[in-house]
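For the sake of transparency, this paper describes our internal protein records without simplification. Because each token names a local backbone shape, the row as a whole describes the fold. One such record is reproduced below, unchanged from the form in which we store it:
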Amino acid sequence: QALADRVKAVKRELDEMEPMVGGRIQHDTLWACTTCGACQEVCPVFIEHPLKIIQMRQNLVLEQEATPGDLARTFRNIERQSNPWGISNGQRMDWADGLDVPTIEDNPNPEYLLWVGCAGAFDQRIQKQTKAMVKILKHAEVDFAVLGHEESCTGDPARRAGNELLFQMQAEANIEALNGAGVKKVITSCPHCLHTLRHDYPQFGGHYEVIHHTQLIDHLMEAGKIQPAGRSVKNVTFHDSCYLGRWNGEYDAPRRVLNRLPIYGGVVEMKRSKRHGFCCGAGGGRMFMEEDGPRVNVERTNEILATGCEAVAVACPFCNIMLTDGTKQLDREEDLQVVDIAELVASTLPERHPGTPTTPPPQEPGPLGPAAADE
């Protein structure tokens, strides 16, 4: 009888408790997470915090219909135009004007499919790194193509922000296009696309070898197909993307690429780097939400500025956007360049036509030569 009374008392206590989502854990707390994985990385009892948070976000979005306004707009944009910004999907290939970029129709059986991503296609700043990657691929004579207008948002912002229904719709459409084109290998410069294509799409029948653009550039350099010949920045630090580093374990390829470039002052590591790197603030759908209180991207930008480097190299379009915004908010745009690794590599490549040797011509010492590094 005593046990039965105790069970009733516990049930009564549970019934009287506030609900988990929106009660014991406030909505703002759940939406503040960038899913960077830093908590999970150091958790001594291996709790998967981001997964739990995403599941609670699903409750907010799909059951409670408590989606923040910024995200509701983002979801509508993906539904209507297949990208989070709501730009007409008819403009998805505008970035390639004049570049002679092969689509899957032009080159039906490429070795690699270049997954451009929404930021790479629509954001004017990120279009520069997309064009840089195309220059690298052509320089190294890589057999590639793009999906063109058949490409659509991977659904990453929707899944991380709790809209599982929208994510699955996007995944099924993209997998149909990829499988229909017979794609086996995918290159992408976006770690969020990389993570979704590599880890999420197999759940729905999309099985591909997915590699990050820094991994391919590293391979091409190792094979001698890319031999930087021009000048680069004086010194640089590298910002680790959470979804490339902690979520996909790639810390070395970007650094190997940077160490092969003519960066005469070298690569400077920040205190918070690699598995302990600090987030830019864009993951988990936060890219499309306004931020209250201290801004994550500003804090990270201050850490980068403290290195005294001329440039920060990034390997993620969201990191690029957030850190560029950080320099603007701090009024330090003139003091720090935010550049994708592909842009740094492309800037050192000599102009050449297919079939010409890749060995660089002799270089005259420039203002960023060894003497400049000693100043």
Remarks:
- The chain is about 40% helix and 5% strand.
- Residues 358-375 have pLDDT under 50 and may be disordered.
- The beta strands are 112-115, 144-145, 185-188, 209-212, 236-238, 267-268, 311-314, 337-340.
- Residues 164-180 form the longest helix (17 residues).
